[in-house]
Amino acid sequence: MDEDFHCEALRSFVLVRLRRAPSERVLEECQICVLEAMQQISAKAVLYDLTKMEQAPASVLLYQRLLNEHLATLGIRRAIVVPNAMIAHLARLAFGGSDFRLFYDDMEGAELFLRDASPFSSADWSVRVIEERRLRERRGSRREPGGRRERDAASL
User: What is the pLDDT of residues 24-39, one digit of tens each?
Assistant: First the structure.
């Protein structure tokens, strides 16, 4: 388990608890864990517990939105539990454009919201495999000074 987040497959949803302010790398690792757990329990529902999360930079939050776009065809339902309006605003930045609902310190309500999520089907398998492979390859490439990855620089 990573110390920045906790991810586990529960009965009918995946529970993700973010601690501290996440980085892009933490979000990628968390995304891989979520994909594996969703396939394990055959459900497309994720409960994000952000009650202990610290404020993250907007660029990191927008990166989460990009990660979500790669999985848009899966139709994942997300419930996001937040402690206050500031974290709620950050969650809207990160998850806007996807199927999500915010809950203020209401884990029970979040779980009820996820009750009717679609099951993870065999047709979803290919999307999961492609995204997981993409993230693992991205994590394996090193960054050059200036923020470009080695592969990106070679293609210029």
Answer: 999 999 999 998 898 8
